[in-house]
UniProtKB/TrEMBL annotation:
It comes from Pseudidiomarina maritima. The keyword Repeat does not apply. PANTHER family: TOXIN PARE1-RELATED (PTHR33755), TYPE II TOXIN-ANTITOXIN SYSTEM RELE_PARE FAMILY TOXIN (PTHR33755:SF5). This is Plasmid stabilization system protein ParE. InterPro entries: RelE/ParE_toxin, RelE/ParE_toxin_dom_sf, TA_system_RelE-like_toxin. Pfam families: ParE_toxin. The keyword Cell inner membrane does not apply. Keywords: Toxin-antitoxin system. Belongs to the RelE toxin family.
């Protein structure tokens, strides 16, 4: 069983996304945060369950997608480090611009 550890940047980004959503729909923001933590808790028992990000096919990073968020993490035998959270479309745009 791996310990899930959130980094400060990942928590800050999740908070910023939730605050933005809460401007229009506080209940949806709360539900999103609960779902994100629920999906990342699952990584304690299944650390390899996240997919390898398509933009980083040869990396050690994995991701869990909880729309509209992508949660990036790295795992070893003892820990799962949640490194970054970003909105799906931001990453997609960066990916598309990098290939043009």
């Amino acid at each position: 069983m791996a310990e899930v550890i959130w980094t400060e940047p990942a928590l800050q980004e999740l908070d910023a996304i939730a605050e933005y959503i809460a401007l229009d729909n506080p209940a949806a923001a709360s539900d999103l945060v609960k779902e994100v933590f629920g999906k990342t808790e699952r990584l304690e028992n299944f650390p390899k369950s996240g997919r390898i990000p398509p933009e980083l096919p040869d990396s050690v990073y994995r991701e869990v997608v909880v729309p509209p968020c992508r949660i990036f993490y790295r795992e070893d035998e003892q820990r799962v480090l949640v490194l970054y959270v970003m909105r799906e479309e931001r990453q997609l745009r960066a990916f598309m611009l990098g290939n043009s």
